[in-house]
Design a protein that fits this description.
Elements (H helix, E strand, L loop, with lengths): L23 E6 L5 E2 L3 E2 L18 E7 L30 E5 L5 H10 L4 E5 L21 E4 L1 H11 L5 E5 L21 E3 L11 E8 L6 E11 L2 E7 L3 E3 L4 E9 L7 E11 L11 E9 L2 E3 L14 E2 L8 E7 L7 E8 L1 E3 L8 E9 L16 E10 L9 E10 L5 E8 L4 E6 L5 H6 L7 E4 L2 E3 L8 E2 L2 E6 L11 E2 L8 E18 L5 E16 L6 E9 L4 E8 L2
Parallel strand pairs: 4-5, 5-6, 6-7, 9-16, 31-35
Antiparallel strand pairs: 1-2, 1-8, 3-7, 4-8, 10-14, 11-12, 11-13, 11-15, 15-16, 17-30, 18-26, 19-25, 19-27, 20-24, 20-30, 21-26, 22-23, 22-25, 26-29, 27-28, 32-33, 32-34, 34-35
Length: 572
Amino acid sequence: MKKILLSTILLVFSIFSLKAQTIEFTVEAPATIAGPYGFTSTNDVAGWGSPDLLDTANAVMDTLMFVDDGTAGTNPQGNPMSAEGCNPLINDLSGKIAVIYRNTCQFGTKILNAENAGAVAAIIINREPGLVNMAPGDDGANVTIPAIFIEDATGLIITNEMANGPVVGFIGTRSFSYNVAIENSGIIRPEAASMPAALAQDNSEYDVQLGAWVTNPGSQDNNVTLKAVITQGGTTLYDQTSASSPILSGDSVYVSLPTFSQASYSTGMYNLTYSVNEGDTLEEFAQDNVISQDFHLSNTKFSTATLDSNENLVLSPFYRPSNATGSVSMCAPFLDPNASRMAAMGVSFAAVVSGGDLTGRYFTVYGYEWNDQFTDLNDPNAMVSAYNVAATGEFTYPNDSAYQEVYVPFMQPMQLMDNQRYLFCVNTFDTDVYIGFDDKLDYTQNLDNVYSQPVSVVENSGSWYLTGFGADVTSGISVELTTNLSLEDNTMNDIKAYPNPATTNINIPLNGVQGNGSINILDITGKLVQSLNVNVNNMITVDVSELSNGTYTFNLVLEDGKSSKFNVVINK
């Protein structure tokens, strides 16, 4: 299977090896932000004089401190120029981990200036989403301290906490006698992060296989147990612990658990938490013992990317192919034996232009029937070569709205068919546009050992990649699905309030639908602007007198869970 390369501005994280110690960046204190964070390091590129961070003797743990080179003013990101460290520093960093903003000068110069001021290590914060591999430049060969690079979102978490008091970080590889671990790449996850409840009515239609690879990076042999807990709304639905398994130092073992299945499922957010425990010995490093993931059974949303409690996408970083020259599509595959219960109404995504503006940028969303016949990713016929357009939608950004989720409805609802493969995609021809992805859910074990179905597909200039940017990053797309709500004019896309200024109502006719419901009205960025409780009695009247001209999304939800979304253009 082909794996497409990311842009050089946004590179993949370090890959975990099941049988080897790994480099870590963790916040040790305070407890409110403690834990591991994604990074790249000087270990990733040749030409640096920095020590090998895989050697435990080179690990660093100390307090973080901003650099200060005395430069006045702020940079385009609103951060102090003095904290870019492009000139010799005026503050003493002895025994500290230097914190530096990326912007203008070379990485090697920044880090060498910090080292000359006494820093024992350095952290560079990106000016935008994503990670890069740091080039050593003119001074990198003279750097002898460890240095890492982190995302802007991670930097914001850390620097906000630095304003409240000391923050202690760890960079390097740890050495323990007794330490067992699980990693994102080693666990079995739900097949999708959000599945419509209409396709998960009982355990014959929906379940979650559970299990994980457990590793022993400690120096001593051990015994381990694996535990999984699934909760929903504060209620524990599943709590299983495996039998004890022996594990040798430096080795790994796969531990399986019973499948999670229920006679019936309620809609809402669920949480799956894996934890691994030593046998009779004391665990010396517990931070890599627990992994937790939220997943949804939703009224309307399908997504392989993470959703928050309001079912909005949680995205970071933002990617594009490194060799993008034209058409780029980021896609969510879909396949279900009961798909005919639903119709696809549109696609949500988020985007950003590196160093630019989204205003006026044009995007198309597609629903494709994917007609290549294959069983799973191990089938040699697994490819994207036979597909046809079943639905489209168009969107032009009215303002920058960088990083904000937008919903784009299809021009016509797309009725789905049982056991038909689909691709739901967002497409752009602007090669400086980055689309949101989710790097929190690593589907490696799902792809390799369990479901073996695509979770994230990428197209670049007509070439398709079944595993996109890899199993550890997922296209940040959610698909709006609806059950067969009978709207008399369910295909309408341009309902217009008449140009008469006295017209303040939109009348929406319904066919044979009864019961209470609600309408949420969202602006073009997805922001809720009105929420109305309505009584459905063949006609809904919506007062639009408080809405300005423009395009809005009307989301109708009935008390029985049926729903529909459609686009409304207000032109008073």
